[in-house]
Amino acid sequence: MAPPAIIAPSILSADFGALGKACADTIDNGCDWLHVDIMDGHFVPNMTFGAPVVTKIRPHVQRPKAVCGKGTFDCHMMIEEPKKWVKEFKAAGCDLYTFHYEAALISTAAENPADHDEARTSPKEMIRYVHDQGMLAGIAIKPDTSVDVLWEILDNENKTECPDMVLVMTVAPGFGGQKFMVDVLPKVKALRERYPDLHIEVDGGLSEGTVDEAAEAGANVIVAGSAVFGAKDPAAVIAKLREAVEKRR
Length: 249
Hints:
Strand order of the largest sheet: 1-8-7-6-5-4-3-2
């Protein structure tokens, strides 16, 4: 049986004029995690916000009492230099640091924003480093990245180098409100067949109209932005997203 449903609304669609309250209200409406989209304008052609904003909203949401528990801040790092920012986001209140496989292939091993390092990091090294800092580690792949690149990482006998979650992007990362890409779901299905206990997240274009396909493929962590924050009854939408996953476990 797959892990339980986890609903993680993306705060990119929240009211930034009252972001702390929006986060607290969404947790009260029944979601499990908050998905925090961090974009640097380089890895993706858009910019959002950084660690100071995470620091400000963290007091509005109680820290999780258990691993992957309610209140988890799932920080999706769409940035060129993911290793440089691990410590900053740990201090800000991040619980799950999800970096991109594609970025880890080309980024440096520098451990602080102001540092320069000619050495390169790697996906396995990134996972180990995030774990060493006391956070959960997630690894994300873009729609045009083959899922096959993850097998070596997920099959690693060194568990400190294995991710706690895999994020399969169902839109091109960078902007909200894009159309759900159903053609990436075979990646989710392949992951679920090989790793029945793995947390598998999908992000992009998820709503009541698309969640069934994602859940059928095996996703258990559902990121939804405007579908939740733009709803007249966010609690009802969260409940429907959860039901779609739970009835397919």
